[in-house]
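Reopening this one. Same input as before:
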Amino acid sequence: MHRLLIFIVLLASSALGVRAADGEAAARKRIAVLDFDSAMTQGGISSPFFQMAAPNMGKAAADMIIARLVKAGEVSVIERAALDKVIAEQNLSNSDRTDAMTAARIGRVLGVDGIVLGTITKWDYDDKVTGGGARLGGLAGSSTKLKHDIKARVEVTARLVSPETAEVLSVAQGTGEIVRKGVKIDMRDSSHAGIMAMGGASNNPVMSESLDQAVVQLAGELGKNFPKLPRYIPTVSGLVADVNDSGRLVLNVGSKDGVKNGDRLQVWRVGKEIRDPATQRVLMRDDVLLGDAMVSAVNEASSIAQYKGAEKVNVGDIVKTAQKQP
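Same output, byte for byte:
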């Protein structure tokens, strides 16, 4: 009996732990991170290398930020596959994504509370030869070993954008700098020669380390602003397209309109229009609230909801976001 009691207590504790974890996940703000832009391609650096490498640098920076935010566990981050799908559906170019209005539109489709727009503002790499070592064959000529002073510096900034208003809610910055003096590089070592050939390329280990430093700092700054981020509740407005006797409603609004599984909507019947007697402009409409409907399935263009209410619902009745979410 005693063992059975212990088992029941442990089972109950486990269930409470699962519910608590689910509650914490639901309480976390939902964030989308777009690929970072590179201001370097707009600031006078026009070499073919930077023009080609900038998109990869931006994607790498975004991926690193996502990894940091997920690891911290303070927010829920939208998967890249879902983000890429929306961007493809909206037919957006790389330049479009840096615009706050466009980012807000993407955010509304995804139903997130905030969008992170980032920019790599500085990408500097300096390699100075400060001394030589042994000479080829012991004679004067080219040195096989050289000493280098290497400095790499990366600066990144990010804006946290509201999907509802496209307002920039906060700005964060991160800087990474690696300085290594007297680094010995043997040109006969292919790995050393490769690092020299990379220069400021994104796959240079020193540049990658600088970017990682900058991202760590940036993620910390962003994290301070997430608790103040207002919860985004999309405003849904659509029509009942079909209804059956069990109260199942088919609605003409779906995920592209901000509808999510579990949303509570209100069903209204169009009422009398009240017009200004002087201008005949509609001042208001005396709609009648019929009841609530809970969304149970969603696709891009439509959704299914279960209706609860005393009044019968007809095709063409209006569905709206409930004033208070449960």
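So the earlier flakiness isn't reproducible anymore. For the record, The longest helix spans residues 2-27.
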